[in-house]
Amino acid sequence: MAKYDVDVLIIGSGPAGESAAMASAKAGKRVAVVEGRSTVGGNCAHKGTIPSKSLRHAVKQIIQFKTGNLFRETGETWRLTYPRVLAAANAVIPKQVELHTDFYVRNRVKLYSGFASFIDEHTVSIALLDGARDEVITADKIIIATGSRPYRPADIDFEHSRIYDSDTILEMAHSPRHIILYGAGVIGCEYASIFSGLGVKVDLINNRDRLLSFLDDEISDALSYHLRDNGVRVRHSETYEKIEANERGVTLYLESGKRITADALLWCNGRSGNTDKLNLQAIGLEPDHRGNLTVNEQYQTAVENVYAVGDVVGWPSLASASFDQGRALAAAILGKPYQEVAGVPTGIYTLPEISSIGKTERELTEAKVPYEVGRCLFKNTARGQISGEDVGMLKLLFHVDTGQLLGVHCFGAEAAEIVHIGQAIMSQPGEGNNINFFLNTTFNYPTMAEAYRLAALDGTNRTSRS
Ligand SMILES: Cc1cc2nc3c(=O)[nH]c(=O)nc-3n(C[C@H](O)[C@H](O)[C@H](O)COP(=O)(O)OP(=O)(O)OC[C@H]3O[C@@H](n4cnc5c(N)ncnc54)[C@H](O)[C@@H]3O)c2cc1C
Ligand SMILES: NC(=O)c1ccc[n+]([C@@H]2O[C@H](COP(=O)([O-])OP(=O)(O)OC[C@H]3O[C@@H](n4cnc5c(N)ncnc54)[C@H](O)[C@@H]3O)[C@@H](O)[C@H]2O)c1
What we know:
Blueprint: E1 6-11, H1 15-26, E2 31-35, H2 42-46, H3 49-67, H4 82-90, H5 92-106, E3 110-120, E4 123-128, E5 134-144, E6 148-150, E7 163-165, E8 178-182, H6 186-197, E9 201-205, H7 217-229, E10 233-235, E11 240-245, E12 250-254, E13 259-262, E14 264-267, E15 271-273, E16 306-308, H8 319-333, E17 346-348, E18 354-358, H9 361-366, E19 371-377, H10 382-387, E20 392-399, E21 405-412, H11 415-426, H12 436-439, H13 450-465
Parallel strand pairs: 1-2, 1-5, 2-3, 5-16, 7-14, 8-9, 8-14, 9-10
Antiparallel strand pairs: 3-4, 4-5, 6-15, 11-12, 12-13, 17-18, 18-21, 19-20, 20-21
Helix pairs in contact: 1-8, 3-4, 3-6
Bound molecules: flavin-adenine dinucleotide and nicotinamide-adenine-dinucleotide (NAD).
Residues 151, 183, 185-188, 190, 207, 268-272, 290, 317-318, 347-349 line the site of nicotinamide-adenine-dinucleotide.
């Protein structure tokens, strides 16, 4: 008789929970997953990555249609409402659910639809969604992969029909003429692109002094320029004092004395880890003030058999990293070699798209590393000219003496794909990581990938002249 009902019990079926489940099941463990929604996929598939990227894709199609002279006569009026675009975008969610459900079925992972909370460190109670009863399960190892949700300050009335967060904006049933986005992190910048692309007047309120300050300054400046060029009003270094809404509109009062009124406000300033309903007191765990759990490099919490992965452990809070954390954790539990999740690229689906990996110019300058820059503007590539996607740039940072590639920064069409070529070279050991790879390699022509060759030529021409 086994001591526990299952070997591994996972709470949450987002990317982190799913990858931990699949890796454990494939290693022959008896695995069960508890999901508080009626379908799998996590917030990633239902509220975060997937719907927002699908919405952005639909908006990009609209922009291409509106600006492409092949499709329309100049002066023709044409408009799609937000609910219509949203409905088209949301069509991807059931496809995602079907895809991910199959993974559980094929790998014989038992799924419980219900809300989990701890009874003790090996026992979890599940309030089943059908309301029939509570199920109690014991497990040798328990993984918390409960993700995060929008942070909601107590002084803002999120029940009001004009005030939204990144979950409820996916239910907005009208097209605003003017929207305020409070918070200019990744979510705020992505939604600024989406709404301005739909022709909505956008105010983007940033409580810092530049957009996405973790990016290379040149890329962050380019984002500010292009958002403004698309009609977004970006306001830096502003903090809200209060937000009032009534049937006529919503007004944001800023500490600086400014007042902005619009049809809707999207709050995108911060997230909280989903830990408050897990009854963590029962096992002596205490999350931090943002609801996140602290873990060691093996994703183990202070309780030996309880682990945590994904958004619930905080930074970098990405679906991409969550998948890898889940797999790394499963390997650690199984006593296999595992790789720490590091060197995660940034992929930001603004218009234009942004992606980067490695060091920024500021970081290299501060560290006194002698580096050179190679740039290729997309407007100077044949592919960029043919496709009309000529806004953008690839920028390579490399060591002046060794040619080692130190950073790849890209904005423009397909930046999030393009960056992976640089990532592959940067991850080569020793001299395998060298800018010369791009000079000694034949690229398909015409491609956006060719930008690597052009940027490498630009950079190495500079170093050979100096
Ligand atoms: C608008 C938006 C856009 C994003 N875009 C991107 C992007 O482009 N690229 C990217 O890499 N990342 C993106 N992210 C981040 C990404 O969605 C998250 O990092 C990812 O979903 C985290 O995965 P997770 O497995 O930790 O948890 P989640 O996906 O949050 O899933 C956790 C699951 O746990 C369940 N759960 C919670 N508590 C319980 C409980 N007590 N019992 C049972 N089940 C429970 C929840 O119902 C949920 O389904 C975006 C996020 C948002 C909000
Ligand atoms: N393309 C992508 O990769 C993508 C797209 C959208 C969102 N995301 C991820 O979703 C997460 C949320 O993005 P965001 O744009 O809202 O930025 P964010 O949550 O990282 O930060 C926005 C601001 O809110 C503050 N904040 C965060 N949590 C808080 C809390 N609980 N209480 C008070 N203040 C808090 C932060 O300090 C920051 O000033 C990020 O981790 C981001 O990486 C990724």
